[in-house]
Amino acid sequence: QSGRRQVLLSGAIAAYVFLSRVNSASSEAKKGFNAVSDKKDGYSFLYPFGWQEVVIRGQDKVFKDVIEPLESVSVNMVATTKQDIRDLGNPQEVAEALIKKVLAPPSQKTKLIEASEHFCFPPLLVRNLHKRSFFAQHDVDGKAYYTFEFTAQAPNFTRHALGAITIANGMNAEAIFCT
């Protein structure tokens, strides 16, 4: 389960650190995964074989597990005048705002587990990210992105989510993986 989660997260992060360029190496599917590549919006990511694409208003792409309906990966892009993710605040401030205002309804109790700042890394590292520490990225071109992890408690379930957000090409982009 954690291997699948790490591949999904690396795919989700790849979707955003490469908004300025789609690279075929980053969209190569690993065994048991399918690749999505959106050349128009400039991202690519992996999702598990057997998941289905669903249409959710306001989301660019969403794939859900048909067996475990709380497992999903989604991509959301919003136009912005900001040039850098740091213009929105530090990782904790941005994550808290997203969680409270966008990612969880007010009726759910949320908890931010971790929020960190990272930098873009070369496409070739994406393919091997599952063999490296997730937080060992390299500052290649100075494009910052934030990752965060949180839980949202509803009366009958708890959602655990991993997210990545960046700004590139005038778009504020976020990827969320939920279990």
TrEMBL record:
<dbReference type="GO" id="GO:0005509">
    <property type="term" value="F:calcium ion binding"/>
</dbReference>
<protein>
    <submittedName>
        <fullName>PsbP-like protein 1, chloroplastic</fullName>
    </submittedName>
</protein>
<dbReference type="InterPro" id="IPR002683">
    <property type="entry name" value="PsbP_C"/>
</dbReference>
<dbReference type="GO" id="GO:0015979">
    <property type="term" value="P:photosynthesis"/>
</dbReference>
<dbReference type="GO" id="GO:0009654">
    <property type="term" value="C:photosystem II oxygen evolving complex"/>
</dbReference>
<dbReference type="InterPro" id="IPR016123">
    <property type="entry name" value="Mog1/PsbP_a/b/a-sand"/>
</dbReference>
<dbReference type="Pfam" id="PF01789">
    <property type="entry name" value="PsbP"/>
</dbReference>
<dbReference type="GO" id="GO:0019898">
    <property type="term" value="C:extrinsic component of membrane"/>
</dbReference>
<feature type="domain" description="PsbP C-terminal">
    <location>
        <begin position="31"/>
        <end position="118"/>
    </location>
</feature>
<feature type="domain" description="PsbP C-terminal">
    <location>
        <begin position="137"/>
        <end position="170"/>
    </location>
</feature>
